[in-house]
Amino acid sequence: MTYDVGATGTRIERLVAESTDPARADELVRLLVGLYGEALTRIAAVARDTGVLERLAADPVVSELLVVHDLHPRDTTQRVTAALEEVRPYLGSHAGGVELLGVDDDGVVRLRLEGTCHGCPSSTVTATTAIETAVRRAAPEVTRVDVEGTVAPPPVGGNLLQIQPTPGYVAARLPDLPLSGLECPVPGARP
């Protein structure tokens, strides 16, 4: 079972906002986070010396908590690099790739698509669905992912097909898609 730390944080914020006394609820959350943070700090100090912290950080839930408390043994660039390694087999199966250009102090990750992914009509979907999802999962503190080599989707309207969202339509949040669900127009490419 996966545990969504981000969704839990959002739910906690919503509960605090809906509380009859938001100030007390906020204080309660800060006290609990501080208590768990102090405990994690002490655990991390022992675990770092024995190499256990690296193994604990491989768990996605533990990893996010270590990031929240600034205790993760890997910095943002190292975690983004590891996330890109996860998507490289998929991109490589389409004769494409991705290069990390850098992570700046504001948490903006700059990437460049390579091979057939650069300029591919599906590049925006690839970048947002596969790459960005992997990067945000590994480094939730990232504020933005800029990708060179994507092709903007055609503007809505003016197309032969007049299929558009109905007024008032609100797109639901898409779940994380498996990489095998993505389509690539590269002939002969294997998903």
UniProtKB/TrEMBL annotation:
Residues 80-145 form the NIF system FeS cluster assembly NifU C-terminal domain. InterPro entries: FSCA_dom_sf, NIF_FeS_clus_asmbl_NifU_C. One of its GO terms (molecular function) is iron-sulfur cluster binding. One of its GO terms (biological process) is iron-sulfur cluster assembly. Pfam families: NifU. May be involved in the formation or repair of [Fe-S] clusters present in iron-sulfur proteins. This is Fe-S cluster biogenesis protein NfuA. It comes from Longispora fulva.
